[in-house]
Specification:
By secondary structure, the chain is mainly α. 37% of the residues lie in helices and 6% in strands. The protein has 8 helices and 4 strands; from the N terminus they run αββββααααααα. The longest helix is centred in the middle third of the chain and has 18 residues, at 82-99. The chain is globular.
Length: 196
């Protein structure tokens, strides 16, 4: 729970500052001291300018990001809302965290495209998955970006209210009031012995 809550808080913070990451994936998530999740690699980020903000929210056009985590509107090559594309990626990351693999995996890029465009209703969820988590993932991965949980008027607050999140408080997440499940022994801030 806590890592996806931390990711949601980080994404909400970025979005509140007019920044869409556009490449949210496990490889761009780091665990800092104190078991805090951090988002890295803002190389593809989209910064909302005051001029474009007044015109429309559907302003990004470039295909970017990582195929397995890219929203269907990015694959289709149409103008898209980069903030709702981030929400899609959060849904993919949640699925990966809970299941151990991405929902639309295929050996070929065109196969990934076909699966993403076919939609989340075609995804086979593992039997062990909590039904509330499945419902949350399906709400985050709606093909229509205007209907994705977190993309309506209340924004990320809708996600935070979801019943799957009830066991853990967002206030405790922000206060870093959790004990990490594993703390590696390191000799200094530059010790890389825990990495291959």
């Amino acid at each position: 729970y806590r890592y996806i809550r931390q990711l949601m808080s980080a994404v909400q913070y970025c979005h509140s500052r007019g920044v869409a990451h556009r490449d949210i994936k496990p490889e761009n998530l780091l665990l800092a001291a104190g078991d805090q999740l951090k988002i890295a690699d803002f190389g593809l980020a989209f910064l909302l300018s005051g001029e474009s903000e007044s015109k429309t929210w559907n302003m990004a056009q470039s295909k970017c990001g990582t195929a397995l985590y890219a929203a269907p509107e990015i694959w289709k090559g149409v103008e898209y809302n980069p903030f709702s594309a981030d929400i899609w990626s959060v849904g993919i990351v949640l699925y990966c965290m809970l299941c151990g693999y991405p929902p639309f995996y295929d050996e070929q890029p065109f196969g990934i495209y076909q699966k993403i465009v076919a939609g989340v209703k075609k995804v086979k969820f593992p039997g062990h998955l909590d039904p509330r988590a499945k419902q949350l993932i399906m709400a985050l991965l709606r093909e229509d970006h205007t209907q994705r949980l977190g993309c309506q008027k209340a924004g990320a607050h809708d996600i935070r209210k979801h019943r799957w999140f009830k066991p853990i408080s967002f206030k405790r997440i922000r206060a870093v009031a959790f004990k990490p499940p594993f703390v590696p022994k390191i000799r200094s801030a530059l010790d890389a012995s825990c990495f291959e």
